[in-house]
Amino acid sequence: MSYTTTTTTSLHSCFLLFCLLSALSCVSMFSGIETGDLEKRDDLFPQILRDEAVARLYELGKVSDGKGYLERTFLSPASMRAIILIRKWMEDAGLRTWVDQMGNVHGRVDGANANAEALLIGSHMDTVVDAGMFDGSLGIVSAISALKAMHFNGKLEKLKRPVEVIAFSDEEGVRFQTTFLGSGAIAGILPGTTLEISDKRDVMIKDFLKENSIDITEESLLKLKYDPKSVWGYVEVHIEQGPVLEQVGFPLGVVKGIAGQTRLKVTVRGSQGHAGTVPMSMRQDPMAAAAEQIVVLESLCYIYRGHSSN
């Protein structure tokens, strides 16, 4: 058992080092600092980009509302603890931090030109019930660690454009059954009526935010939108949550497209009849018809061969 644990941790460390190096490369390439410009310190990459990052991921993975499993929904008690923790890590990386009115945590460095278009990096800090600890957290920790490596080398203030790390408060939509509250506010795609959405206990989003000492109105929600002209681009490191990279033997991949969701409710109606006296030729069994539809739908998905996951 100890061998398995050690091996798994080692594999995680190697994979995460790849991810963190890719985040560092993204920040460097898009912000005007070459990775070769970073001072060669023997302890830099192992300590900041591997050991500390892995420790932080495991620490964040323990911030949960559930016992024995990970559950950290939108602005739950565990989420509020995660906000404090993430903000502390951002400040440790030399970033100026704040929490907006949708609970997103921001960490920003202006670099050499505060008025230039900013590079945004990040992911979501909320989880589903019984979640994996790398989902979302990897993108946040890798971004912070990449910038800390630059801070450690005195290169952070020399970046040619601002870089901002964002830990989005809600992606999963577990509590209010509406996804992307955090990033939706930043993108400016949330209508003011979003604040009136209620959970299963009839608590509205605006009231829930107020319970967490966040006052928000329709007007202030709209003001959270980032001007597209102020944003140079967005990068997110994320686990694949699938088997393809492992199958082809690649530690990393670049996303060219993601699965979209369309949910339909289909009703199949039939006729009731006696199981022993209605001939097969006269039956209208909705279960059999539904089963046939499922098989046809499944076969249609195979038209798109390769690694699609329809």
Automatic annotation (TrEMBL):
**Would I find Manganese among this entry's keywords?**
yes
Leader sequence residues:
1-26
Q: Which Gene3D superfamilies match?
A: 3.30.70.360, Zn peptidases (3.40.630.10)
Q: Which PROSITE patterns match?
A: ARGE_DAPE_CPG2_1
- Write down the InterPro entries for this protein, in alphabetical order: Amidase_Cbmase, ArgE/DapE_CS, Bact_exopeptidase_dim_dom, Peptidase_M20
Q: Which GO terms describe its biological process?
A: purine nucleobase metabolic process
A Pfam match is Peptidase_M20
Kindly indicate whether the keyword Signal belongs to this entry: yes
SUPFAM superfamilies attached here?
A: Bacterial exopeptidase dimerisation domain, Zn-dependent exopeptidases
Under Gene Ontology molecular function, one entry of this record is: hydrolase activity, acting on carbon-nitrogen (but not peptide) bonds, in linear amidines
| Keyword annotations | Hydrolase, Manganese, Metal-binding, Purine metabolism, Signal
What are the required cofactors? Mn(2+)
Subunit composition and interactions: Homodimer.
Q: Would you tell me the protein name for this molecule?
A: Peptidase M20 dimerisation domain-containing protein
Q: Which organism is it from?
A: Phaseolus vulgaris
